[in-house]
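Hey, I was hoping to borrow your eyes for a little while. A protein chain has come my way and I'm curious about its shape. Take your time with it, there's no hurry, and the full record follows here:
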Amino acid sequence: MARYWWQCTVCGDKPKWAAVCQSRSIAAFIWDELAPSGWDQKLLRRVCTRNHRSLRITYRVGRGSEDRISIRHIVGVGPDGDYLPMLWDTFRHSRPRAHLIDFKYQKGRSPWGLTKRVVFEKAQFIQLLRSYTATTGQVLMPDI
């Protein structure tokens, strides 16, 4: 499974997870802080103590890869029972202006679904896109 950490987008500092948020892992952070907050996007951008720039949740693209991805936005629908589908708006550190859209899910508090493919019903997909627009103010697909 991918490993997640907080990292400054400017100086590269990597503070311990627990020093940045109240949760012990990405799965707990999503389930205990982000989803209950109504997907408050301010929780995804913290302040670096070294240079007062942005700390973001970061992870590697693949095993052995040096390319890192940081999260701009996470928006979800639900949870529906213990199923939590999400849309992640991310960027590669090597190309920070390009948006990468990643669809993920969690089953309960498990991080397992964060690395698996996810399939949506059309209505659920549209609901997720609308939720993204409502939460971030950014439109990914007009006319939805």
The chain is about 20% helix and 30% strand. Residues 4-136 form one domain. The mean pLDDT is 91. The radius of gyration is 15 Å.
